[in-house]
Amino acid sequence: MNYIDFHVHAFSDKIAEKTVASLAATCGETPETNGTLADTERVMREWGIDGMAILSIATKPSQHLVCNNWAASVKAPHIFPFGSVHPDGEDVMEELCRIRELGLYGIKLHPDYQNFCIEEERMFPIYRRCGELGLPIIFHAGFDPLSPDLVHCTPQGAAKALAAAPDTTMILAHMGGNALWDEVEEVLCGKFPNLYLDTSLCAKYMTDAQTLRIIRKHGADKILLASDCPWDNTANTIEKIKGLGLTDEEQRMIFAENAKRILGMSQSRTA
What is the reported pTM? Predict the structure, then answer.
């Protein structure tokens, strides 16, 4: 069986150690890697992972070029890099076009680190442009320790964004909303054809029963294997999903086939 981890973080060698140390202090987690691409590739080999989506985040507008150029530089047959834009940048729309030209596979937006709420109307043109360019968007969703008193991406807010850009593929990390899974079940599951959920951190924080309910209600064809490495081990997530009683076909979809469809792996992309 093939495995593609759709939610992995790595950084350029210049900033990896400092960045991971800072993030670890914020989230209180022990990282599985030192943040470099080489160390990330090492653990993925150890865990039996065939491919990974590397997610970058532009935490300020001036980071667009550096962030996306680095993402493009690490593209490989087993590495599917996503770019990022900061919503406050004056060149957001131009940079989205450049992301597509670089052959990146989509964009990552983190409402907490980029200081926006997912349902803000100023964001809707960005979402719609991504749909026009064929760029899926991965959002951090739910609670984040950076902003413990304000959830920037709630299931209710995500529902408004999904409705505003129905032609844009949106992926909500952490099974739709970290620590808000009851609301995910009620508000999101099975209601938006453009919505995928990734499994990042579910092995650490979700019960098997609720994980299975969400998969069944939303559909295994809209669930993506993900770990949020370096903050969890992909093998732990695989073990959890294998223990849920899903069919072999459902597991194949979650572990790789859904990712291949989003990534367009049968289609050529600009190098």
Answer: 0.96
